[in-house]
Every structure is written in C-alpha cells, then in structure tokens.
Amino acid sequence: MWGAVVLVAALVTACSGADASRPHDRDRPRAAPTAAAAPRVPDARGFSNWEVGAKPLPLRVDGFGRVLPTPRELRVRRLPTIDRLPPPPNDRFRSSVREIGPRIRARMGPTWQPGCPVGLRDLRYVRVSFWGFDGRPHTGEVIVHRRAAHDIVHVFARLHRARFPIEAMRIATSVDLDARPTGDGNGSGGFVCRPIRKGSTWSAHAYGLAIDINPFQNPYQRGDLVLPERASAYLNRGRMRPGMIGPGGVVVRAFADIGWSWGGQWHTPRDYMHFSATNG
User: Fold this and answer.
1) Strands 274-276, 270-271: parallel, antiparallel or unpaired by DSSP?
2) Closest CA to 170 of 207, 137, 125, 206
3) Angle at Cα 268 formed by Cα 262 and Cα 272, nearest 5°?
4) Rounded Cα distance, 25 and 208, in Å
5) Distance of CA 178 to the CA centre of its chain
6) CB 182 within 8 Å of CB 53
7) Regarding beta strands 187-188 and 168-169, do their DSSP bridges make them parallel or antiparallel, or are they unpaired?
C-alpha cells in the first residue's frame, strides 16, 4: 500500500519524506566534517539504547504495521541525532534553498514520478539548522513547493531560536521506500507523492505543501490505526514531553503565521505531526 510504505520508510531513516509510519560532548564550536566523512554518531550515554528500525512489525490487512504498545525505552523518547549532513559549525541558524538537481532527484527515487500533481521544477530542496534532543545543532533537509520554500525557512528559524528539539529531518529515498514498517521512526519531512491515507485524492505532501514534525511524539490516529505504530503513549496530549506539539506552542504559532493549519486540531483523524497550506 503506497501510503503505508512511504510513511514508515521516511520515519525509520529520519521523514518521512512526508509522514509518520513508513514513511530523529557538548564542545562547540566545532568544524564541520568533509563531504567524504562518515556520518557522525554521537556518544549516546544518557540516551535510550533503543535501536530504531531493528524490529519489523507484522502487517495488518490494510498494509500498515500492527499497532503495539509503546516500549518503555520510548515512552519519554530522547535519542541522539546521527549527522548524515555536515552539522553547522556553531549555534547560528543556517539555511539554503535550491532547485532539484540530478543528485537530489536520484535520491528521491519513486517519491516523485511522472503523473504527480507537481513537477520537479516547482519543488525546492531546503536545508535548515535544527536542535536535536542531544542539545546539539544539526542540519536537516526537506523538499517543499517553491512558493512555500522561504516561508518554511522562516518557520524553522523560529523553531531554532526556541530550541524546539527535532530528532531527525531528512528526505525520503528509494531505500526508505523498501523498508518494512517498524513503527519506531521519527523523521520529520515534507514532499512525498502519495494519496491521503485510506483515500484516493492527493495528499498535501504530494504538492510539497505539508510538513510533519517529530511523528513519534506527535502521532496520527484514526480509529484503531496509530502511526507510527509504536507511538500510542504519545496520544495522551495532557502529558507534554519534549518534542510534542501543543495548541498555542511555538510550532503551531510559527506555521500559523505563514497560513498553514495543524492536523492536531482536526476532529478525525487527529494528525498531531502534520502542518499544511491546504488543511489536508
């Protein structure tokens, strides 16, 4: 099922490209690694020892993973971010907006294909700084519609100033789409060409006009379906924990100021991770 596959893949690797199921040493300043350097894996002392993506879930008849109780290690989730892009050299917010070049297009794989409702020329590849749950600045990437790109930079600049923690932020790739659902991913992300969940119309993600933030701390719920499938503990919105999005908080205010709405205010489904320009 296309929606299920994309959701889990994006999260496990860190966005979902677009959604939340199938799609996360304090010495500063420090030099950014060279392009050839291996991803920086931070010292994980003091963090959960949960290994994201290591335990595939059995599938439901609808193609999503079986919804399971949240593991004890993830009930107050705090995992370090693995740098797959060079981190900022200091605490300053940095950003860039570029057209989709051949290298990014190759990484996107089938997350975009002919027949999608938006062309590659109308999409932009955006990099922004963000703060991880490890208290360090990192570099994230997201693909959005060209007319939303600079607004999205302003949103993440505000989140950076507020030090709102984000576990991971990376575009969905071909590798992600082949991953089995594990229900423990937490990748924030934007564009993925797919229909709405359990529907046939295009998602706002398919236009590059939606972004999901910390899906594990801000899950999707519709009936007995929870995405990510291990994130049920975070459906209790009365118990706020780091990375959660609440009414009137900095994340909701930042997106509202660019005219985007929050799925956490929908009656059904509830989509606490989801912000969009189209209310869908």
Assistant:
1) unpaired
2) 125
3) 35
4) 36
5) 17
6) yes
7) parallel
- The C-alpha atoms of residue 131 and residue 227 are separated, in whole angstroms, by 24
Quick: pLDDT tens for 119-176: 999 999 999 999 999 999 999 999 999 999 999 999 999 999 999 999 999 998 877 7
Ranges assigned E (strand) in 20-151: 95-99, 123-131, 137-145
Look up the pTM and report it. Answer: 0.83
CA 69/CA 120 separation, integer angstroms = 39
Q: What confidence tens digit (pLDDT) does each residue in 8-46 have?
A: 333 333 333 333 333 332 222 333 333 334 455 444 456
Residue 158, judged by CB atoms within 10 A of its CB (0-12, 13-18, 19+), counts as middle
Buried b (16+ CB within 10 A) or exposed e, 263-273: bbeeeebbbbb
DSSP helix/strand/coil, 2: helix
Q: How many CB atoms lie within 10 A of CB 174?
A: 13
Contacts of 125 (CB under 8 A, 6+ apart): 97, 98, 99, 100, 101, 104, 141, 143, 171
Residue among 266, 236, 25 nearest 137 (CA): 25
